[in-house]
Amino acid sequence: MSLIKYLVVRSVVFGISLFYGGLTVLTVLFRWFKNGNEFFVVKERSLPPICLQDAAYGRHAYLKLKNIKLHYVENGDRNKPLMLFVHGYPEFWFSWRHQMKEFAATHWVVALDMRGYGDSEKPAKKSEYDLEILQKDIVELVKALKRDSCILVAHDWGGVIAWNVAANYPEVVEKLVIMNSPHPTTFREKLRGSIGQFLKSWYIFLYQLPYIPEWSVHTNDLEIFDRIFVDENNQLTITEEELEGYKYTFSRKGAWTPPINYYRQNFNIKGMIEGEKSLPKIRAPTLIIWGENDIALSKDFPELARPHVQNLTVKYVPKGNHFVQQDKVAEVNAHLAEFLNKA
Ligand SMILES: *[C@@H]1O[C@H](CO)[C@@H](O)[C@H](O)[C@H]1NC(C)=O
Question: Average pLDDT of the chain?
Fold first, then answer.
């Protein structure tokens, strides 16, 4: 790869990022003028709402891995098969509460806060969020839970990690369940080949910039959560108290930079030019559950994953949004149960 080529692509990406950065600044300022003085205030929340401590979801625990201390919530009998839940952006273990409650009867359910999120440790350096390291966290966590393998259930950014773990560490994944997260190879191909997906992915470019992403989410008391957890009729899909759970967690100091660093660290320009190696074919039986109303991801991703997975089942959830496991709980849990009950 020539240096010139690298610099050209780097500049184009930076240009696109600056464009979206400018647009974001203007949008935020516009909303500020409309909303008034309190716009840049995030309420101080000293105590977590009760739902974050609800024993029905599980017990809180920590594990120290080689390089990181992770927080997780667990439920069910430790002798049952292990279901490990990996959340996306911008969430934490709480994203999986409905599944924890449902599957604790038949499984040992564990939902972690990924590094940099929630009550897990938050390394300061961007390079600490490299995809290689994020994969190792999952592999090491399974070992630390004294298991050889698990049923890995993942969403969004958690899905990026889980796709990679299932491909690169097949011995660790017995079954794979992915919700609204494209197979990484298909995502790269589509980002290159489809204007539609490219435009839907604008925030990935925005997130390459310093400061502006963090600044833009700290508006109107973390209004971002009021905007993303809504159904097709723009009604909140989680309770007010659950909303407070998210706002409590993400109002704490330093809560946003590590999650955004996932995007900053893993935007691979060198890989874009040279073409990255596609991942080894996934051997674990795999279920993709896909909320059809995802505004950030094209609906054909599940089918595009077929060549990359040996044994794939796809279940679409009509009217389900990106956060499908909280949006359409009954449908998602039924699909999960059906898949897990197969031999
Ligand atoms: C695919 O996976 C399902 C679910 O685990 C299993 O029931 C089925 O036998 C598998 N099919 C093949 C061809 O291996």
Answer: 95
